[in-house]
Amino acid sequence: MTEKIIMTADDIRRAMVRIAHEMVERNRGAEKLLLVGMHTRGVPLANRLASIIEGFEGKTVPNGILDIGLYRDDLASRGLTPHIHRTEIPVDIAGRYVVLVDDVLYTGRSIRAAMDALFDLGRPEKIQLAVLIDRGHRELPVRADYVGKNIPTSRNEEVQVRMKELDGKDEVVLISPDSGQAANGKP
Amino acid sequence: MSQETDGNTASARTVERMQVPQWRHRHVLDVDDLSRDEIETVMETTDAMSEVLAREVKRVPTLRGKTVVTMFYEASTRTKASFEMAAKNLSADVVSFASSGSSVEKGESLIDTLRTLEALGADAIIIRHRESGAPYVAARHVGASIINAGDGWHAHPSQALLDLYTLRQRFGKVEGLRVVILGDILHSRVARSNIWSLTTMGADVVLCGPTTLLPQLPCRETPLPGDLLPPVEVQPDIERALIGADVVMPLRLQLERQHAGLLPSIREYTRMYRLTEERLALARETAVVMHPGPINEGVEIAPGVAYGSRSVIQKQVSAGVAVRMALLYLVIGGRAR
User: Fold this and answer.
1) Cα–Cα distance measured from residue B226 to residue B230, given in angstroms and rounded to the nearest whole number
2) CATH architecture of B158-313
3) Fold match between B31-156+318-332 and B158-313?
4) Does pLDDT of A181 surpass 80?
5) Cβ of B5 and A65 within 8 Å?
6) How far apart are CA A79 and CA B38, in angstroms?
7) Are B155 and B148 in contact (CB under 8 A)?
8) CB contact under 8 A, B334 and A81
9) A–B: how many Cβ contacts below 8 A?
10) Out of B10, B61, B334, closest to residue A71 by CB
11) Domain segments of chain B: what residues?
12) Distance from B317 to chain A by nearest Cα, in Å?
């Protein structure tokens, strides 16, 4: 397995600042925003976005945590029982511009589950999606409104987002199987 | 559940317990099968379920397509309703049986009954039975997940877990709390399961009651290895037991005990062991009163105490649905049939 760094800590910081500005620009202000970080790594990302927005808009954006474990469509087929964490949204969703925040957008199934969860919690006025990495391979008609970086990947690769709050440092790596591991030796 | 809403409540939080091992129990037979870590997992999952129960629409699609069957060979109000509501809140299909009115009256055996239920599509079967060990027999003979809702005098794991959750909500953690279980310990599956769960989580457990209703613990001359028994204090004097207590849990006195000759009279029992306001005053200021229900008002507990400000009995009932949702999710949430 080879690991290649595709975003450094500075790259991540710059992307987050840009996304924060785009978010406030597109929504014409921060008043109705509600950031919802998807457990696990969407949570520190959402926290950072809220801080950045507070820094340049002077407004406090409410910030929640969403765990989609109870809404996944793939529980039975994967034979897993993922650990469920508490969903905590500090304000009423009704009338809000909810921005879902996640680290990697891949098949889109997690986002579908997140939207189901949000609709069970209330009626948002809008739902937008911010991701640090879009790695392609969508299986559902889902798209991100704000993207840190687009990385074309193949299905046997893995994108790992590491965050200081959880992993000790900020970086995004692409993990690929070694060329010698391919079935017929082709790179 | 209720947060100080400064609008940014998520910011200070980090993810706890990152390395949570995969849940590996197919059944819930007793709390003594669970490690401390696993009990923590149940508690955290219950937290998530509590949030669902705080919503206007208390439903999530997690167990959609799964079938949960309750099979109660003994009467129950709260446990049965609680499990059924838990399953429905998770969008499972629920079918309920009581032994009366079923083919059990025609003499059908436990194993045949459960195999039939499984063949009809049950993913989980919730059993209450008057014979200790019945759920263990069930677990050996069917592929469905078996959840013990009370077997004889032996165990009532979901009750112990909801009691634990209630105490965590009140005190934050259970470690170091002095918990007094009061009454007919000998015949109580609630007491047994609570003894295991509370000692595993580090509480100090005190058993108090008439000596005829306390389990016979080995005397010093013939000690058993320490790890076969949880460390508990036995104190037949109610006033000594209650001093400094954080939690008092009187158990229901089954009125049949008098007929079995274990008590001189119910009146004498209530005189010596009823939890009254005066006796409760010996406990700490912050102490709480629990009871698994149903209450024999005036027998093991004075009504003023049962419905007073220190009682968390109603909270136990609400915790019960959340805990049972957590248990159902953990045992059948991820399994394909």
Assistant:
1) 8
2) 3-Layer(aba) Sandwich (3.40)
3) yes
4) no
5) no
6) 18
7) yes
8) yes
9) 106
10) B61
11) 31-156+318-332, 158-313
12) 20
Counting every residue written for chain B, the total comes to: 337
Give the number of residues written for chain A. 187
Strand locations in B4-144 (E): 67-72, 93-98, 124-129
pLDDT (tens digit, 9 = 90+) per residue, B161-171?
999 999 999 99
Contacting residues of A for B124, CB less than 8 Å apart: none
Q: Which residue of chain B comes nearest to A64, CA vs CA?
A: B10
Express each pLDDT in A102-131 by its tens digit.
Answer: 999 999 999 999 999 999 999 999 999 999
- Which residue in chain B is spatially nearest to A121 when comparing CA positions? B55
Type of residue at B45: T
CA distance A24 to A58: 12
Q: Which residues pair with B71 in a beta bridge?
A: B97, B127
pTM of the model as a whole: 0.90
Q: What is the ipTM of this complex?
A: 0.87
* Four-residue CA torsion sign, B54, A114, A49, A7: positive
Q: pLDDT (tens digit, 9 = 90+) per residue, A160-178?
A: 999 999 999 999 999 999 8
* Domains annotated on chain A, with CATH: 10-71+88-153 (3.40.50.2020)
CB B203 within 8 A of CB B181: no
Q: Which of A69, A78, A90 sits opposite B5 (nearest CB)?
A: A90
Q: Among B3, B22, B44, select the one facing A81 at the smallest CB separation.
A: B22
Fold of the CATH domain B31-156+318-332: Rossmann fold (3.40.50)
Contact A104, A131 (CB under 8 A): yes
Whole-angstrom CA distances from B235 to B131, B272, B335 are 29, 13, 45
Residue B136: both structure tokens together: 């263990």
Q: CB–CB of B316/B161 below 8 Å?
A: no
> What six digits make up the tokens of B234?
């036995």
Closest to B83 in 3D by CA, of B162, B189, B164, B163: B162
A121:B55 CB<8 A = yes
pLDDT tens for residues A19-51? 999 999 999 999 999 999 999 999 999 999 999
Give contacts of A51 with chain B, Cβ < 8 Å. 11
B320 burial via Cβ count (<10 Å: 0-12, 13-18, 19+) = buried
Q: Which residues contact A163 (CB under 8 A, 6 or more apart)?
A: A41, A44, A45, A103, A170
- β strands within B272-336, DSSP E: 288-289
